Amino acid sequence: QVQLVESGGGLVQSGGSLRLSCAASGFRFSDYGMKWVRRAPGKEVEWVSDINRGGSTTSYTDSVKGRFTISRDNAKNTLYLQMNSLKPDDTAVYYCAFGPFRGQGTQVTVSS
């Protein structure tokens, strides 16, 4: 069955960096575009970024442009999100996803 397992979250000070990973299994990873979404406390799920199957095309929500970088390694069935210059507003649970599937999430907390 499809499994998406996120890791790499944690507590970081404002301006810091984190790198999230998402290990995928149970499907042909290289056949699917992937995305990161997040849910901040008390808010709806927000799309953050996505990447096409081959990794050549990416897009980002405006609030993270220039700070976050999505990438993938199809040989390792892994999706990444490099997050730099983190802000308290980035505090959320981050999920990798495709289609109707989503992982369990990893908590990112940015202190001011």
Key phrases:
112 residues; mainly beta; seven-stranded mixed beta sheet; four-stranded antiparallel beta sheet; 0% helix; globular
Notes on the structure:
With 112 residues, this protein is an all-beta fold. It is 0% helix and 54% strand. The chain has no helices and eleven strands. Strands 2, 4, 5, 6, 9, 10 and 11 form a seven-stranded mixed β-sheet that branches. Strand 9 (92-98) and strand 10 (101-102) form a beta hairpin.
In a nutshell, what does this entry contain?
By secondary structure, the chain is mainly β. The strands form two sheets. Strands 2, 4, 5, 6, 9, 10 and 11 form a seven-stranded mixed beta sheet that branches. Strands 1-3-8-7 form a four-stranded antiparallel beta sheet, with no helix packed on it. It is 0% helix and 54% strand.
Task: Please give the structural blueprint.
Elements: E1 3-7, E2 10-13, E3 18-25, E4 34-39, E5 45-51, E6 58-60, E7 68-73, E8 78-83, E9 92-98, E10 101-102, E11 106-111
Parallel strand pairs: 2-11
Antiparallel strand pairs: 1-3, 3-8, 4-5, 4-9, 5-6, 7-8, 9-10, 9-11
Helical fraction: under 10%
SSE succession: EEEEEEEEEEE
Number of strands: 11
The biggest beta sheet reads: 7 strands, mixed
What is the number of helical segments per DSSP (H or I, 4+ residues)? 0
Low-confidence stretches: none
Distance between the termini: 40 Å
Structural class of the secondary structure composition? mainly beta
